[in-house]
Specification:
alpha/beta; ten-stranded mixed β-sheet; Rossmann fold
Length: 348
């Protein structure tokens, strides 16, 4: 199965649902202390018979200073809503670049997630385009939320019932038509409420998504029926009290009784036709347990990283003092952004 190469960083983090507002500056990129080096991904795709083909060799470079182009734009969805988003295009890249759809956490925004995640830096180094869509405004500052089903806030199904699946589908169409994107390499990431929406996209937009990797999400829709198997990486802190790894009511402002993240990823693995999982200790970090499902349909990869001692905050990136007061000091020995792109880049 997948031998996911983890590149650890020493840093602090970004947006989470238990925040009460935006970071002190949306446009300032918090410094990280990551000492990343070139990472090799050796990910043998497992066939439906459980055998493995030779692993692809993919080089993932550490982030560098972004020198590309950032553009803000909007589109009108079929329901008449005006939706906004931000795009980062690297200064150099191929004519068929991958696309990463990066979904901010609850009460965050596209600009905030761009500033705090470091995905622009990784995109510049590795030649992919990132789009940061904005959720529905909550009426406080620039804070926004997504309709992931049972969460979160005014966007969710039992309130405004915003069609965020339709928005993301339209957005993918727009970006693929506007930028030199490989339509077969459209990936999704997200944090917290954004990761919850990523789960929903796996259920309802699997025909458009080539892989998903995210932190601190769970499945909040019933009747999940993916159009095809899709590779998934779920990162979750075992000490996350905002969205507990076993499910239940979190201590954030969403006041949601969450479905179990452990059960959510297991359910998606079952829908992907995977066999029983195996827990493997990570060779580079004793805090990390890798739960790997084998024999998935179509050779897809399903994995969960359970990180002992990690809370809800985006791992491996700097955060403001306000965020640390609300979420605690972010776990520093795993860089979620780098780990996520390493996984996605290895999917081919």
């Amino acid at each position: 199965m997948v031998a996911l190469a983890l590149l650890l960083a020493a840093a602090t983090t970004a947006c989470s649902w238990d925040r009460t507002g935006e970071p002190e500056s949306n446009e300032t990129r918090p410094p990280t202390t990551s000492q990343s080096t070139t990472t090799m991904v050796a990910s043998p795709p497992t066939t439906s018979t459980g055998t493995s083909s030779p692993p692809p060799e993919v080089v993932v470079l550490p982030g560098v200073t972004p020198r590309g182009t950032t553009s803000d734009a909007s589109l009108t969805t079929p329901d008449g809503s005006q939706r906004t988003y931000r795009v980062y295009q690297p200064s150099a890249g191929s004519t068929r670049m991958p696309l990463l759809v990066a979904l901010h956490g609850g009460t965050g925004s596209g600009a905030q997630f761009e500033a705090n995640s470091g995905f622009d830096e990784l995109a510049e180094a590795n030649g992919f385009v990132v789009v940061y869509p904005d959720g529905t405004g909550i009426g406080i500052g620039n804070g926004r939320v997504w309709n992931g089903g049972g969460c979160c806030g005014r966007a969710q199904q039992d309130r405004l019932n915003v069609d965020d699946v339709g928005f993301i589908s339209n957005l993918i169409d727009r970006i693929v038509a506007t930028y030199p994107i490989d339509p077969d390499r459209v990936f999704v990431t997200g944090h917290s409420n954004g990761a919850i929406l990523a789960y929903r996209l796996l259920c309802e937009l699997a025909d458009r998504v080539s892989g998903a990797a995210f932190q601190a999400g769970t499945l909040e829709v019933d009747g999940c029926n993916p159009a095809r198997p899709v590779s998934i990486l779920h990162i979750h802190g075992a000490a996350d009290t905002n969205l507990p790894i076993n499910g239940g009511r979190g201590d954030g402002i969403s006041n949601t009784d969450f479905a179990s993240p452990l059960e959510s990823i297991a359910h998606l693995a079952e829908l992907d036709g995977c066999g029983a999982p195996a827990d493997v200790a990570d060779e580079t970090n004793p805090d990390i347990t890798r739960r790997i499902w084998s024999g998935c349909d179509g050779g897809v990869v399903v994995e969960m990283l359970i990180v002992a001692g990690a809370n809800h905050a985006w791992m491996g990136h700097a955060s403001t003092r306000l965020q640390q007061n609300l979420s605690g000091v972010p776990y520093s020995d795993l860089d979620s952004s780098l780990t996520i792109w390493t996984f996605l880049a290895g999917l081919g």
